[in-house]
Each structure stands twice: as structure tokens, then as C-alpha cells.
Amino acid sequence: MKSYIKGLSYYLPETVLGNGELASLFPEWSVEKIEKKLGIKERHIAASDQTASDLAFNAAKKLFAEYDINPGDIDFLIFCTQSPDYILPTTACILQERLGLKTGIGAYDLNLGCSGFVYGLLNAKLLIESAVANNVLLLTAETYTKYIHPKDKSNRTIFADGAAACLVGKDGFAEIGNFTMGTDGKGAENLIVRSGGARHKAPMDDLIINEFGNPMSGDYIFMDGPEILNYTLARIPEMVSDVLRKNDMTMDDIDLHVYHQANAYIAKLQRKKLRIPEDKYYCCFEHCGNTVSSTIPIALKEAIKDGSIMQGSVVMSVAQGLGYSWGGFILKF
Length: 333
What we know:
Helices cover 31% and strands 23% of the residues. The protein is globular. The strands form 4 sheets. A 9-stranded mixed sheet has the order 5-4-6-7-1-8-15-14-13, with helices on both faces. Strands 2-3 form a two-stranded antiparallel sheet. A two-stranded antiparallel sheet has the order 9-12. The chain has helices at 19-25, 31-38, 52-67, 91-98, 116-129, 153-158, 225-246, 264-274, 295-305, and strands at 4-11, 15-18, 42-45, 76-80, 106-110, 135-142, 162-169, 174-183, 191-192, 208-209, 215-216, 222-223, 256-257, 314-321, 325-332. With 333 residues, it is of the alpha+beta class. The longest helix has 22 residues, at 225-246.
């Protein structure tokens, strides 16, 4: 049995944070500097009372409306987020009830970052191809901005909030190929929020401003950008080669590369490292920033809309996220 993507939609919150506002807060960053380095002009930010499940709910409703999907036909729900509504219960259970899905279905959360859509799609594929489910609703949503210190100019220019909805079934417009996956927990502390979990349940209240003027605290996102970048660039050739091997393909077989949409700086380095022609490497972060686990489905949707992906296209997607965690796959349209 094969599995297919049969629907893709996404939702971005209404509030927009543009480069002009960031430049006014951080005079050392000009509008031109931000855009030139990151390729991001604006990012959408969740409201103070808006959670990841709210974003996912809106993405799912858009999916249902766009593809005329009956919620009663959904028989499994996977929700990927690292900013759940509560420590417990499972946010997927809350979404099942809120979306009006039937009770005779499975529903669970995945706690993964930028690689989350890849892992979620693999889970959906396995559920379909093992005949456990007929229609799997995969939702990704993140509100990283709630965990970024207001004075953290680096992360505020990169990350944004958003959600995507993907329906996977036994038929559809994109056949899901084979996957490669990987994990290296040695990198866990290079992108981390230390407080809030069982290890450090209470706020740490340990804020300091380092010699570069950046806030450092266990209560907010810490990211060692250079270390993550170096690891990603070292890992990605092996990851791409493994995806090709597992799908019995070469780079010449790939019509479009739709990777995790971190920012323009990383995209350019990845493309050059892999020697991918610019017209075969798709970028989609200018008006939405880095939405973590939702970047690939958002980019796939936009590539379909603008004609970059057509019937017959073969697409490769890969992503590496915090943890470290990575994965990749092939889609045949």
C-alpha cells in the first residue's frame, strides 16, 4: 500500500512584526541589514492569548474548507509542537474535541522542532501503509516567540509563529516516498529552554546580559547559532545522499529542493554545499520567517500555488532541528 498527501493548508497569526520595528528597537540592526542577511522582511506573531493549538485549529479549518474535507472522515490526529497548551493533558486530545473529530480515533503529540514535519509525515505514512488509519490529519504549530526574550535581537529577527495542516491518505496528489532519520543528543543544549519542565520546573530568574549585549537566561530560548550551523552543514550531505539512496535516485532526478526554511543565510550555504542550482532550491521565508516545524508544509503549499511544483515533479525535503534531530523524504507529484 502507498500513502499520499491529499491536502495542505497553513495559518499565520494576524500580528506582523516587520524589520522596521526591529530596527527601531535594535539600532545596530538596519532594515537593509536584516533583509540582506536573513531574507526575511516580516514575521507573524501569536497574540498573548493565542496558543499553538489555536493556530493549529485555524490551519485545520482552512484545510477542511479548501479541500471540502468532512471532519468525520479523519481517523487519526498527530499534533507536532514544542509549545503545548499544558504540560498535560495532550494537546492533540484537546484539538480532537475542538475540531469535532469522532472519538474513535487515535491522537497524540510529537515534541520536535524544525524536523517535526518530517517525523510527523513519517508517522502518518506508517499509519496509512499499515492499515491502521485511512485519513491522518497532521498538524504542526509553534509559538516560539513566547519563549524569546524581548531584547534577544538575534532570535527575534529569525523566528515566527505559524501552523500547517496536512491530510495524508491512501490517495492524493503527492506520493510519499522513503525516509531517512537521525538523532544526536550531544547537541541538545545548543538550542534549549531550561525551565518549565521537570528538570527545572520553577523559573530560574537567572537573566544576565553578556558582553555582546545579548540576554542569557534559562527561562528563554538559548540558541548557539554558529554551532548549529556548523553541525547542519557537516551533516546535510550525508542526509541528502541517504534520502537519494533509499529512494533509488540521484540528484538529477530531483526537480525541486524544499528544505527547512531557516533563513536566507543558511539556505545559501546549504545550496552551495550541495551544489544545487538556484532555480531548483525553493525559498519561502520572506513574509513568514522561520516557523519551525511548519516551514516545509508552508513552502510546499506556496510552491504548488506559484507553479514551482507541477504534476510530475519530484521533490526532496530535509530538515535538521534541535535535539539534534533530522530527517528527509521524497515526494512524487
